[in-house]
Specification:
The protein is α+β, with helices and mostly antiparallel strands. 52% of the residues lie in helices and 18% in strands. It has a three-stranded antiparallel beta sheet. Helix 3 crosses helix 4. This is Large ribosomal subunit protein bL12 C-terminal domain-containing protein.
């Protein structure tokens, strides 16, 4: 490549320092923001806010139905209220889970 540049009589390239310059941050920052908004619209998290103490067992059983947790793990998860029960689900699935938790005596929200 240097021999070709000499033969064609091209000027020598100077290295330009980009230190302190914010190159392409406007275009780069706009792209991920759009992608994040799209991801938020299609994937939701279901969070258990609280539950009735008398319905604790029902809530634990319901949590076990849509997670692959054992009894002890589900109990520990429910006792850590407020806690995210399931991440990255569709809106329909999240609404279904929230309704089941509500029927069992708990309060869940979609984030």
């Amino acid at each position: 490549m240097p021999a070709l540049a000499e033969r064609l009589n091209l000027p020598k390239l100077q290295l330009i320092s980009t230190e302190g310059l914010d190159l392409g941050s406007e275009g780069g920052a706009a792209g991920p923001k759009v992608e994040e908004k799209k991801a938020e619209k299609t994937a939701f998290d279901v969070k258990l806010e609280k539950f009735d103490a008398a319905a604790k067992i029902k809530v634990i059983k319901e949590v076990r139905t849509f997670t692959s947790l054992g009894l002890k793990e589900a109990k520990d998860l429910v006792e850590k209220v407020p806690v995210v029960l399931k991440q990255g689900v569709t809106k329909e699935e999240a609404n279904d889970i929230i309704e089941k938790i509500k029927a069992a005596g708990g309060v869940a929200v979609m984030e």
